[in-house]
Protein 1
Amino acid sequence: MKALKWIGTAAWLWAAGQAHAQDAAPARVAGELTLAAAQEEALEHSPLYRRAQDREREAGWEQWEAFSRGFMPHVRVSGRHIFSVNYASEGVNFTGPSYSPFLENFPNTSLSLDADFDLFDGFQNIHRLDAANHNHEAAKILSDWSLLQMQENVQLKFYGAIASRLLSDMADQNVKTLEDHLRIVQDQLSNGQATRYDVLRVEVQLSEAKSDQISAHDNVVLGREALAQAMGLRDDDRPLKGELPALDSEALLKTATQVDILDSPQLRAKHLQALAAADRSAASSAALWVPRISLIGQYQAYDSQDYNIQTNGVINTGVYQNSYFFGASATWDILDGGES
């Protein structure tokens, strides 16, 4: 019983430790959040940037696939072993109208090594590699553009959250000022120095200020949520550390007028994707109108089978022999049913 009690106590302590660890997991929330830290965390958590990176990696693998498919030999190894077989028979005529049955034997165990290399395929390999290169370059441009967009979006949301906090503080100060002003006007009304109209006017101003204060507080929460979403987080309540920058509007406008719209990342990526589509089209056309010439070869090791005339059966000699060939092949799809 004491052992069970100690085991139960240890299990309870372990569960409590796990719960405390889960509660303390977001320890980073306790510190301050700067713009640089927000942009760095967005690199790890932003799904949009991750998707752009995955597309770039996928395009890189397509480059290797196009190179391997068109410029490297292909080698295949195959083997088989038959556990049970019922040989087919073939009739052989030796002397007269009757036929003697003979079993058609074949190896029970074999190991084959096949290799082929395309000498000429109508430049399909070059077109496929060019298409893969263009796709990878376009994916790289879009990945860099996604990184820039993510950083600028996080920066905009970060400064937007700081601005919302400043506006909220101003709304709180405005409400406090109007409350103090209302008390002064009420005192003046009791002393005959103000009218009821003055009191009503200040009360209306205070009511509008309180409404603006509620909106300002909501904007603080919404701005913080927008920043967390831009960083790829569900929520984040770390206090922001930073100040709003002083923008030079004339310098920004001068820089904006110097930007060439035709040199935008989206247009450059679309142009490269169009070139890749043209290369794929050329590769498909070459597959239809040009024959393929390849070097082929095969090496095979197999167990030798003999035919026993007396028992009319096949016996395994236990001797392994080999066969091989090396040559060239040419294929040309003249008619494929209109598929091409």
Protein 2
Amino acid sequence: MTVTSPRRLVLVLAGVLLLGSLPVGPARAESAAHAKEAARQAAAELAALQPRVDRALRAYEKALGQLAHSVTTSVSADVDADDALLRAAGARRAYNGRVRALYMGGGSAALYASVLEASSVTDAIRRVAYVQRIVQVGGVDAVDSRAASTALLARAGALETDVEAAVVTAADVAERHDELIALLATAAATLSRLSARAKSLAQAEAAAARLRALAAQVERGAAERVATARAIAVPRDFRAFYVAAARTCKGLPWSVLAAIGQVETGHGQNTNMSYAGAQGPMQFMPATFASYGVDGDRDGVADINNPADAIFSAAKYLCANGGGRGPAGLARAVWHYNHADWYVALVLKLAGQIAAKP
């Protein structure tokens, strides 16, 4: 949950650029030379600002990409862990099956005793080798399989640990977005100060076109990254809170609360205070929590850092902003939670994926 409004900044930027393209009244008295010099200076200022804009754009797109990547990595880690558990269980079943077969046949001692019934030395050697294979192969296969499964579980565990240590959240993306938009707004303000005559010169028009292209790239980049995101498995304890909290607001899907929990902190994996001051598993601003805080676990205290309290409070906040009033109301409520179009698109997409899971 942020205190700044990226959408408002984008609209300001678009409005400033649009003003430069609309018909205007008579220009103030200004010589052609003066207008040309003003346009040149503005272009120079924008050129000097360009490297910072480029760096900010790369940082923003990287944060978006990391957000999607951390989700995908978590999914991969979950799959690897499940695969490891299945392999280990399979190895145990196979080994136990061989052991049961031995016992049902009288045990390995009985099998070795059968060697005494051999009709020749060659037959005895063959029987000994056969018994050894039966007794040993199960143990060897089980040991090998257990070793492979242990290594796979260790890999999955390490991967999940890395993910938990580097979870990129909505706050990280919003911070990079705000830095970028602030630079673009500065550039737009530089152009807006030009006279109508100066704005019509080639240098100024080229700069305005470049800013419009950058603004479009920001929105396009967000849409492309959102398209790659996938929902991660919801921890059992958090899932119970999401489901229970959603019941306090008729029409609010629990999967939306879960999606917000994933995007904000990875279901509590990264609860560091955001650059704007948001805190806890659902990243509430303290002032907002003071108004909407709920004692979700009924221990007598509404704690911004308590998962149950934070999730029930998020449900209350969403409900107050129309979260239970159909798709349009839900989208509006999510936008109130974090004022960014990419955020709304991401949360609703993940919510759909979470709802579709068994």
Protein 3
Amino acid sequence: IFGVNWFRKGKDGRFLWPGYSENMRVLQWILARIHHHASAVESAIGFIPAYKDLEWEGLPEVTADRFTEMMQIDAAEWTKELNLHARFFEQFGVHLPKECKQIQEKLQATFVEKSAIV
């Protein structure tokens, strides 16, 4: 399962991601990752790309520092997000596939464990 947030804003209030026309860069990484042709960095929320893993040609404004800001994991934001996941899953009751609940529980446990380290 892959997740993206194209709408994160930086300290300057501007979107961090350069725009919709650049989404293919992330989708290329996802496909390469699925086919075991791309690496990833382990984080509190799973595996994420490193700066070197994405194609940046034609985007000089996306520096390694800006990418680091894009990929920052805010513990408070993610705590809220994981709580929303749990509430969302609750509405399905017994109809929720057990695999979904297992993935959610693993993400929650990994997040708590890795967030304590950071």
Protein 4
Amino acid sequence: MPEFIAADDDGHMNAPSDLLAAARSGDPAAFEQLISPFRGELQAHCYRMLGSLQDAEDVVQDSLLRAWRNVGGLDERGFVRAWLYKIATNRCLSALERRARRELPVDLAPGTPATEVNWLEPYPDRSPETASGWAASPESIFLSRESIELAFIAALVTRWADAWQTGDVEAIVAMLTRDARYSMPPLPEWYHGHADIRAFLLDGPLQSQWRFLPTTANGQLAFGTYLWDRPSGRYVSGGLDVLTIRGEQVAEITAFLTVDLTRFGLPRHLEP
């Protein structure tokens, strides 16, 4: 566990003077101990700016490398968190200058070529750091809903999974708001309202057999979806469905089709 780093009266995170001195003198172990409490929240910060988990991970790695190269110039007061955020924010802004903002299909103007779009990606609420026992950072807490809030919709979780697994389109539609939206990045198509979504489900997804496992992503209820694959004789990953809840109904479904489900604490496939 990294050494405790205290906050001063202004909320800055002050590093212990001996740890700071060792890091500034070029001790890699001291530097790692200095920055390790902030990895998770830096990744969450970069994700919110970039909309891509992979891009966020790359920028964090680049930022920490730059921090290591310049640690000798770190303020003697040891405001590590603010220093790291400044570096990471600048790297994110540079990355954004090199490409378009990430979008969802429902955000695009009609006729926008899908090849020109950087698609928004989901963010796992449980990072490898928190899963391995590190304390949750303020940023990761911000991304996650309170467990009691998720418990409030626990009945919806069972009903939603059952409806999909039995192919009950009317049960699915009944759980949607009247203005619900359904999109499937990286596909540009999206659907709006009960009639539109019902027709799409009957003509497409509900022609197949599914299994759903609940998780969370972006601080929202989500399901890992598994599609029956006859050649392999098991259920294979169909993507991650992230649900936006309004009251006790589903206002939006974003089905991310190209996602590594293991990042969300789910298996890659399911046996029958």
